[in-house]
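Agenda item 2: adenosine-5'-diphosphate complex prediction
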Amino acid sequence: MFKKNIELEAVNKDLKHFVYIASHDLQEPLRTMTNYLNILEEDYSESFDDEGKRLINVINRANTRMIDLIKGLLDYSRLGRGKEKLAEIDCNEMIAEILLDLESLINEKNVQIKYAKLPTIKGLKVEMRLLFHNLMTNGIKFCKEGKIPKIEIASTEDSDFWQFKVSDNGIGIEKKHQKNIFAIFNRLHSASEYQGTGIGLAHCQKIVELHHGRIWVESQPGHGSTFHFTIKKSIE
Ligand code: ADP
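Presented output:
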């Protein structure tokens, strides 16, 4: 059993390293492509007919998407580095900061946000913030056009864990997808329907696991979703 754990840890380390190197090194050729695409657009666009311009546009969109995916992968591989940075986090303050970041989106969509008094926890600050940010922006994004998004955040506790929930009144998620949405790059909609890379919930899962907790969703299509997660109270 002990040997298996060591082997598993080694494989895991290799895999993390691979993801980091691959996503890091892939950025270089992508940067070159982006630069040359910009030159083509700026200096040569007059030489293209309509079909040529359309094709450049398609390549540009694919290039932007590739940049987003690779950045997501790189961020994923970096999560949890520097575990020594465990800090006291006042979740009320953290949510207030996130709301400031999201101000223009909130105003644009008239989003209603409610949160009860939340605890001060011990955790990784940047990661915890990303976790709440992802769940809140998903709640706003996956809402039916024309409906006012409503987000509610609350928490409970038992002797070992804090438990949080982030609820929305959005489009909901069918039962059969409720587990696999946490896998990397899994999406239930096309990018033209709802923008995104499919990496947000994978980030959330990894962050929760770094805090020795778990994450799951309860939802009914058409009746919103509630994402629950736990965070261990005493982590080192
Ligand atoms: P992204 O938001 O970039 O698509 P995520 O990993 O955050 O990627 O989410 C994966 C998929 O799970 C989304 O594409 C969407 O189909 C579904 N999903 C996530 N959050 C919600 C939500 N609050 N309501 C409905 N569907 C959701």
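Discussion summary: The chain has six helices and seven strands.
Owner for follow-up: CH.
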